[in-house]
Automatic annotation (TrEMBL):
Amine oxidase domain mapped to chain residues: 112-361
Cited SUPFAM superfamilies: FAD-linked reductases, C-terminal domain, FAD/NAD(P)-binding domain
Pfam families the UniProt entry points to: Amino_oxidase, NAD_binding_8
Family: Belongs to the flavin monoamine oxidase family.
GO terms for MF: oxidoreductase activity
Organismal lineage: Bacteria, Bacillati, Bacillota, Bacilli, Bacillales
Domain of life per record: Bacteria
Gene3D superfamilies with a match to the protein in the record: FAD/NAD(P)-binding domain
InterPro entries registered for this protein in UniProt: Amino_oxidase, FAD/NAD-bd_sf, Flavin_MAO
Entry protein name: Amine oxidase
């Protein structure tokens, strides 16, 4: 391959693909529109309070009983992990006029989930260290992919508004499928059935927002609570203990409020409702918030398109897009939405990267 493999997207899938190609001695370039690596992985510290630790505003867990790819990679990279806290009673809030109900789940009722010390960003950073630093270009927005005879050209805009052109032997699109269909021009155009398939795949997490309330300690555990709660009242429909392995305490929640309603309400009103709900569930100590972190993925232009703002009615059907026609053997798709079994999970992102790289290696060995 005289030209590099270009990977569009520096999330977990794109970085893993670059790592695997690098290990095989294949040159690659990773082009990322954001000013950071990680994509939908976002582990954030409280400004000026690093002692609190880092908190995941994107994916949080993996399940070693079922997810072998991420489990092996975490072990290979010698990353530290700990069990998601689940000891204690859960709460269910059915009505704003009734006290939350308390349930003690049977032992081993929940599948054991694992978290990474330092957040999932620690996995991103460890994978990135296996790639030459110069191979990753941030703030580089891919706008077009052109196929002229057998030449593959990637066009992008840089942070300083320069136009960039990169010749590639192949391209791995490690982006949400709807972002590919909406933001990248193809010449010649993609086959209609392929484009329709990309548009049909809702972006995982794109309609969601996540909030983390941080405390000096996980006070709910002192009352025999696990931090796990469900609610029909809201604004959070599901809450979990987000405390680091040691030190501070934290609760995080997923919203039941649709993206368009959140947009109309505004952040300040939403966060006030969040604290009110945490007080209803966990008592007056929940008012003593040291910090609060909030990320609305529906407002992230590198994650969500307008179609993603409508709430999901069913779990999306994910998997590899259909035959790419003239683009076959030139364009490969990766990312969690292109994995059939683990779509929406970190495991799916990793498996899709391995699949894309395997196809490229197979083609290279045939040349």
């Amino acid at each position: 391959m005289k030209n590099p493999v270009v990977i569009v997207g520096a999330g977990l899938s794109g970085l893993r693909a670059a790592s695997l190609l690098t290990a095989q001695g294949i040159e690659c370039k990773v082009l990322e529109a954001r000013d950071r690596i990680g994509g939908r992985v976002l582990s954030t510290a409280v400004p000026n309070r690093p002692e609190f630790g880092k908190f995941d505003l994107g994916p949080t867990w993996f399940w070693p009983q079922y997810e072998g790819t991420i489990t092996r990679l975490v072990n290979d990279l010698n990353l530290k992990t700990f069990d998601q806290h689940a000891k204690g009673a859960m709460l269910t809030e059915r009505s704003s006029n009734e006290a939350p109900e308390r349930y003690v789940l049977p032992e081993n009722a929940d599948t054991r989930s694992i978290r990474l010390v330092g957040g999932v960003q620690s996995l991103i950073d460890a994978v990135a260290k296996t790639i030459p630093p110069e191979a990753i270009e941030l703030e580089t927005q891919v706008t077009a992919i052109r196929l002229d005879n057998d030449s593959l050209i990637i066009e992008a805009n840089t942070a300083d508004r320069r136009k960039k052109r990169v010749s590639a032997s192949a391209v791995i699109l490690a982006l949400p499928p709807r972002i590919v269909a909406n933001q990248i021009e193809f010449a010649p155009i993609l086959p209609p059935n392929l484009n329709a398939d990309l548009l049909s795949k809702p972006t995982w997490m794109a309609g969601q927002a996540k909030v983390v309330a941080i405390y000096d300690r996980p006070f709910w555990r002192e009352s025999g609570l696990s931090g796990f709660a469900t609610s029909w009242v809201g604004p959070l429909q599901e809450i979990h203990d987000a405390s680091p392995h040691t030190g501070s305490g934290a609760l995080f929640g997923f919203f039941g409020i649709p993206a368009k309603m959140r947009r109309a309400m505004g952040k300040d009103e939403i966060l006030k409702l969040v604290i009110d709900q945490l007080v209803r569930l966990f008592g007056s100590s929940a008012q003593n918030v040291s910090a609060i972190l909030y990320k609305d993925w529906a407002k992230d232009s590198e994650t969500a398109v307008e179609e993603d703002l409508d709430p999901l009615k069913d779990f999306p059907i994910y998997g590899q897009p259909p035959n790419a026609g003239i683009w076959e053997k030139k364009v490969y798709f990766a990312g969690t939405e292109t994995n059939t079994q683990f779509g929406g999970h970190l495991e799916g992102a990793l498996q899709s990267a391995e699949q894309a790289v395997a196809k490229i290696l197979h083609l290279k060995n045939k040349l």
